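Render this sequence as a predicted structure.
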Amino acid sequence: MNEKIKKLDEMLLSMAGKYCHPDAPKEFIIISEEPIKPETCESDLLKQLNLADNKNKVIIKLQIEGREVEIIKRPELDGRLEVVIKREPKNTTLTYGEVYSILGICEKLLGIKIAWKKPFPRGSC
C-alpha cells in the first residue's frame, strides 16, 4: 500500500473515537478532477450515465468488495463523476486504502482511467 494512503488510514483510525459511531466514517465521497468527455463512453456503464445529457441526474448502484457504491452524474458537476462508497452492508471500518481499491475497480468497470480528488469521509451523525 502507498505510504500516503497508509498515513491517511492511521490518521483516520486514530480519530474514529471522535465520531458518533466507532466505525465512522459512514461513507466516502470522491469527485473526479476533470469532466469525463461523452465521446469516451465505450463501456456499458458509461453509456448508462448518459454523459451527453447535462440536465438529468443518473445514479448507478453497485456492490463492490462488500460495499454499496454509487456512481453519480449530476448536472451541477459539469461532466465530472461523483462516487459514494458506503460502509454498509459490510459495516466494518471503511479506510482510505479500501476506498482507493474500490475506485480502481470502478475505473475498470467504466473502462477509463480517472484522476480523482482526495476522498472526503462523511461521519455517521
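Summary. Residues 24-122 form one domain. Residues 96-110 form the longest helix (15 residues).
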